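**Sequence with structure:**
===
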Amino acid sequence: MARKRTVSIDVIEQAKMELANLPQKSVREKSIDAALEEMKPQIQLLFKKGYSQADVCEQLLRLGIQIKEYQLRSIFSKKRTSPKDR
């Protein structure tokens, strides 16, 4: 019969104290959807300047953000709820 794994109470108490004292973890990355949502005004301005979705994808790739055209379409086609619907 296998021996049950145990942890001493001292180790548990020490771990609880150390975990409680950990600093807030900084967020250094965002999801693609969150990044696009944050850049939405700048992307809309590019569309007004005549850039296509492919052009925007190419520019974002050049800057280190790899996205597909369908991701741009989806971020701009999300239905907004009107104040009446809320």
